Amino acid sequence: MNKLSETYFTIGEFASLFKLSKQTLFYYERNNILKPSYIEENGYRYYSLEQYFIFDIIINMRKLGIPLKEIADYIKNLMNFFC
Known about the structure:
single chain; mainly alpha; 5 helices; HTH merR-type domain-containing protein
């Protein structure tokens, strides 16, 4: 098994972890809320373990009814703080 498959989730695997469709992840990517960690030349998208925890925050914020714009701003600030 290569390092990439041990470190990253495919978009399908990542969506399954949250019981969401891949289209939901594409939507979040298009709206600059959560972009994949890595996109291969063939378009395959991969998400990191760290993004699992970030996406968990996003899901919980959505459950609280927080608008996507506010979530996007929060995640952007969070990433700027930690990166």
